[in-house]
Amino acid sequence: MFVLPLSKFSSINQLISVFKDTQNQEKMSIITEHICEAFEQRTRLRLSNSETDGTSLWLFGNKIAEWREDGIWITDAGWQSKTTKERLNGLTGVSIQQRAGNWYLNGNFWQGEWTSVNENNGIVATPQEVVQFDITSEWKGNYSKPIYSVYHTHTEAEILQIEFMLSAIGIPTTKTYSDTDGEYKPNHFIVVPVAEFERAKQFLTKVSLETL
Questions:
Q1: Which residues neighbour 87 within 8 Å (Cβ) at sequence distance 6 or greater?
Q2: Contact, 44 vs 130, CB < 8 A?
Q3: Is it the case that residue 147 has pLDDT exceeding 70?
Q4: Are residues 69 and 118 in contact, defined by beta-carbon separation less than 8 angstroms?
């Protein structure tokens, strides 16, 4: 399981301040660092617009990297965007530069086709147990809420902050979504494993989400 060590931060307040004080590029770099690390270590992680199950890496739902028998292969999935380049450059053996509107992968002109970027060089890929989530829901007034949800918001952008803090103490997360009955008012939830439910609630109460 991917864990961002809490020891990297002197306090919970410092952990929160990572998101209060950084700009979009810094947030993007944080996501890239940890999603790529999780992918290379064959562990599951979802952060913002990126997700890995330890076998493949997705950005906005498009697969941009995958493990094969001979190592890691990458593609731009048809999108030579700033975010795609940022994510791919976070992988071992990848250096993408843009010159005159063209992409160059490790010094070679590249049109984004599936390409092998390493042969397990320096990467220890040990598959780990898949984390199980119970997303059973119950009716709460005019919307459906997962029983093991520890955070609920109408603003999806808030989710990344909570995922980051929970990952810092070793609690895996997944996201679910539901509409409010009779109107378009999206509900976004963070769900944790049953065994981590109480710990996650206690942690988030201690942090005090009002300070975010």
A1: 32, 35, 36, 50, 57, 59, 64
A2: yes
A3: yes
A4: no
Is residue 42 situated within a structural domain?
yes
Residue 48 domain boundaries: 23-116
Residue 127 burial (CB < 10 Å; 0-12/13-18/19+)?
exposed
Q: Cα dihedral angle (105, 44, 19, 159), rounded to 10 degrees?
A: 120
Has residue 28 been placed in a domain?
yes
- In whole angstroms, what is the distance from residue 167 CA to residue 175 CA? 13
Is it the case that residue 84 has pLDDT exceeding 80?
yes
95 and 142 in a common domain: no
Asked if 173 and 167 count as a contact pair (C-beta separation under 8 A), the reply is yes
Specify the pLDDT at position 3: 44
Q: Is residue 29 part of a domain?
A: yes
Q: How many CA atoms lie within 13 A of 54 on its CB side?
A: 14
Cβ 51 vs Cβ 58: under 8 Å: yes
39 shares its domain with 102: yes
Whole-angstrom distance, CA of residue 4 vs CA of residue 168: 4
Residue at which a domain ends, from 62, 87, 116: 116
Separation between Cα atoms, residue 153 and residue 24, nearest integer Å: 21
Give the pLDDT confidence of 156-194 residue by residue, as tens digits. Answer: 767 777 887 887 788 888 888 776 655 656 788 899 999
